[in-house]
Input
Amino acid sequence: MGAVKNMVRGFIYSAIYVVTTIVIPLAIFSWVRSMVVQGFPLDFEQQDYESIIFWLTAFGLIISGCAFFKYSSPKQSIRKGVFALIQVLVNCLYLWSYKFSGATEINFVILNFGFFSLNLQQMILVYMGIYFLTIVLKGYDIIDFTINREKIREDRMKA
Amino acid sequence: MENLELSIQIALNYSHVDYPVPGVNTTSQIQIFTKLHNFGTIAKGTTGFFNFTGVFSDFNVGAFPNFTTQVDWLRGPPAIEFYANLTISLDYSIGLHSLTIGILNLLVGGLP
Output
């Protein structure tokens, strides 16, 4: 029964990550692309848009896959620790993809008027730096789960 | 809000007489004024009032055409048009995000 429960939990978290890392960003970028400001249509470059969508979808799918294996693994297992660490690393790459795909430096041409540019690079880099610190915690978890493997198994059998 | 900057560029549009060959007048655009001014930081909840001033050295005097021989005064009116590019940029939240708004080729006047 525990295995089925873990699988269901894996699917649920995988679906949550699909929504948060792919569906919501795609919806936001599509909405921004069709935005009209004060009667002026914004011209978001097609090439930028396609590049952003490609990288967000690619890394979003990897994150969602990792989320399935992480959340379907038994608590305090080495497998869970490894996939948690991989997920943090892929999350960092996902954030980095916002930068190199051009999503953090959005340029809009307002036809017959001028342009509008929003640069979020610093914010993404700071967020990535903070997130990068969790790698240390995940590394510690793997060491902890490995050293105390027998005790964790005994506790799991008792429960 | 930090690094509030305003950049103004003014260009002059005119019909250049006998350019590039005699008998042909070509529309030319030259940049005659460029200035960038940083108004610094505006603290949260406050309002700033600023003056943007240009001095003689901000004008690119060397680029001006010869108004008596090079400008086709029969074109138009106006024979000379002035276009401005205005760019406003600023940083928010200790520089975590920056915003730039540009108004390009805004017709600001003409002569005569």
Observations:
- The first helix of chain A runs from residue 2 to 33.
- Chain A has a mean pLDDT of 85.
